Amino acid sequence: SLTLCLHIPSCASVWLVATSAIRIVAAMPKIVVESLGTDISDGISRVQWIENAPSTSHVPASGEVAVEVRAAAVNFPDLLMACGGYQYKPRLPYTPGTEASGIVRAVGAGVSRVKVGDKVMVCLREGCMACDVIAPEAACTPLPRGFSFEQGAAP
Questions:
Q1: If we measure between CA atoms, which residue out of 15, 46, 16 comes closest to residue 31?
Q2: Measuring CA to CA, which residue among 110, 144, 139, 123 is closest to residue 75?
Q3: pTM recorded for the entire structure
Q4: Distance (Å, rounded) from C-alpha 39 to C-alpha 121?
């Protein structure tokens, strides 16, 4: 299952968690933003759940890691990006999400810090609100022992 966690920065102890069962298939659900809102509220209203989105490649290139996402965080920059209010401007359409955690499913040539089956945290500019991501090895950090996927997605 994929879990999305909303961390409210002004109150570090508050977490809103929504869980949805996800099957790993050729076409997988992911979250997509096709147009930007005029403010954060409008931006959030434009976030779409795409049930049969084409999957990203499961074959990482040299130096890359394929991760099956188990939890993805919703952070303030994600909300700002949905209305064009963040300094990084993703090209539309895009999949939001800058932090996630999950399980390594494949590694490209030259990857040495993680291996298939490892639990990792991933930090990217976008794309973490999907069932799987391809990330540079440097963007993957081993999930600390005792951390849940939810804790690893938004430490």
A1: 46
A2: 123
A3: 0.79
A4: 30
CA 138 – CA 2 distance, rounded (Å): 23
The pLDDT, as a whole number, for residue 50 is: 83
Q: Provide CB contacts within 8 A for 60, sequence distance 6+.
A: 66, 106, 107, 108, 111, 134
Summarised one tens digit per residue, pLDDT across range 72-90 is 999 999 999 999 999 999 9
C-alpha distances in angstroms, 16 versus 7, 13, 20, 29, 152?
Answer: 7, 10, 14, 20, 15
44/83 Cα distance (integer angstroms): 8
Q: Are 48 and 94 in contact (CB under 8 A)?
A: no
3-state secondary structure at position 49: strand
- Other C-beta atoms within 10 Å of 129: how many? 27
Distance (Å, whole) CA 95 – CA 112: 28
Per-residue CA distances from 58 to 3, 54, 55, 116, 154 (Å): 20, 12, 8, 12, 24
Q: Is 14 exposed, middle or buried (0-12, 13-18, 19+ CB in 10 A)?
A: exposed
